[in-house]
TrEMBL record:
Keywords: Molybdenum, Oxidoreductase. It comes from the Bacteria. Residues 25-141 form the Aldehyde oxidase/xanthine dehydrogenase a/b hammerhead domain. This is Molybdopterin-dependent oxidoreductase. It comes from Pseudonocardia zijingensis.
Amino acid sequence: MTQTAETPTYVGQSVPRREDAALITGRATWTDGITPPGTLHMAVLRSPLAHARIGAVDASAARALPGVVTVLTGDDLKGEFAIGLPCGWPVTEDIKIPDHPPLAVREVNHVGDGVAVVLATDAHTAQEALGLIEVDYEELPAVVDIEAALAPGAPLVHEELGTNHCYTWPLAVGDVDAAFAQADVVVEGRYVQQRVLPSAMEPRAVVVTPEPVGGAFTVYTSTQVPHFVRDLLALVCGVSDSKIRVVAPDVGGGFGSKLNLYAEEALALALARRLGRPVKWTETRSENHVATTHGRGQIQKIAVAATREGKILGMRVELLADMGAYLQLLTPGIAVFGAFTYCGLYDFGAYSFGCKGVFTNLTPTDAYRGAGRSEAAYAHERIMDDLARELGMDPAEVRLRNLIPPFSEPRTVPSGVMYDSGDYETTMRKAMDLVEYDRLRAEQRERRERGDTVQLGIGIGNFTESGGLSPSKVAAGVRLQSGGWEAATVRMTVGGKVEVVTGTSPHGQGHETAWAQIAADALGVHPDDVEVLHGDTAVAPFGRDTYGSRSLPVGGVAVHVAAQRVAAKARAIAAHLLEASEDDLEFTGGRFSVAGTSGPGITIQEVALAASLANDLPEGMEPNLTADHHFDPPNFTWPFGTHICVAEVDTQTGRVTIRRYAAVDDCGPVVNPAIVEGQLHGGIAQGVAQALYEEAVYDADGNPRTGTLAEYHFPTAVDLPHFTLDQTVTPSPTNPMGVKGIGESGAIGSSPAVVNAVIDAVAHLGVTHLDMPVTPEKVWRAIGRAGQTAGTMTS
């Protein structure tokens, strides 16, 4: 294969993922596979109650168990921590933030709250010892429902705060009252975003090793954010960040749930410091259901004002967002993050948004794939279908009448932010053509006319999302306590190979492959000659890690710019060695040559050697081919797309079958099509799962009813259809590659498409609302209730 620096040849191709060989042959390195000599195994005793005061803790029997080294409570460890677990997104000045100790001290606030830790010489003994610890609990009333939590006289999750109200965050653009006053039609919807469990293939794990000298620690942890873990562990444990090395080995998925500093990481470091021995903890799946953050958890009230012709004039959004018992790293900001995309792809003049955060005695919520944007897309696509039914119009036609016209430079949208570029109608019509939309509508009419027991529904999920999180100034504007830049170093070795050091930290996204493609094109080498280093703060000391569809449009762009700088330096050295002007050089196939001459030129590998020898460089030039770049984008990127689900609903059983699913996405230019398809497959699967299967359920006392995978249903491959994927390409003007990101898009567009399809199939029977998950029982009962209502009205 021939490559030229000016005309990329690897970017845009489905280069096989280099990560996969180790992952599928058992040669990957997981945190649970790391056990240094002398390791003590940690187990956490977790509260079985949602809300209770902690009385006496009797650990005598546990301490007497052979192999147990120590048992410690929150009181025992209070001196080990400088602060509690931090919240990094205090969205308002008056937000209420409860103290969050790594181990509960006086009170437990959700099932799974840690009460004591056991350290033993093996994991089995540590688990056995948990059953020997007796705790005297004084049970307190539990707060489970977020609407009831705000009622006068409701029990308090944190009595010291005096309220369950965490914060109120408002946004208003334009004259919303006037828009609703002049509207011909006002449609209101109330939609529920149920709690879901991220359920990464690899549960969390951490190993902390104290180094023999210098008071330093190495922390191996299954995380998306090794740099965050380093910085936050330093604060919580009172250790210099220069003394903490964090390594994220192979990480088996995260979906946002590993975008955090967790209690177990802080406990492991504190205990390793206290005992001077390595400490290891690996989460069980049942622990994962109560101790790892949950996703979603919102009640959405949305209203649109429109003309009789279907043109939207204004939108109001009011959210109640379930914080859970504590504020984890990003908990308050997740709902707020979606504030800017409830307007979707649609063009209108007035918009208001308000969100109240509410404490409950449940596991804290935090980021989950598509965080904030998935919830927004679900609401605006549900209300678009509700508006279409109110007006007697086709759902696609209502959308087409309201789409923002094509634009290639940033423009302000109803929520007041600037989208980067978009051509929404082209994308939507392409998706409609893929499923043969008009033919499906004709089939739907035929089935209804003949009273078929299996009805057909077509659901549309239009969306845009704020990817490329985030410009540092914008982050500061919404009080996010983190910069939005990303770092990269690209260097050529003496032997002519390429090393890329990236601050992003992949957990399945394929960075090693894609970043190698980017560097290979810039430097005229083969991707196999590029090594990508990541996930180790000693190797990559600067980074903001991986989440929020930011890896490519921030981290990948940083690699691109750094590689271009290396290529520019190589060009200058080559010109010097060839005694030519830089402007006269051609760079083809990794070789510099003088245009119009027949000389052999010089390879970039030869230039790298010359740069290392440094005995014949241009005056004032430093040795070696290396460059750093910290990219802080001027704006988010805004990927978008249209997903269409075609569903069949058995009206006698409520069973839903997805007959066809098509998605047309626009993430700008694509680096690796196979990786994009894989990201979309996984994201769509998660969105379908929320729509049809998944829900974290609690009883009235805050006890989880979905504590294991026997009760919590997520789909397997046999539950999912074939996905038909296509794309449009609208480059982003915010970065030199024009890329936008794809990691969350599938999860954002799919849930509304699926639920809209199910409701569309049975709307003529009187069923115009269903909440997720749309189980067969829910559908069957809704059809029955609608039939009874129709019968009563007829009689």
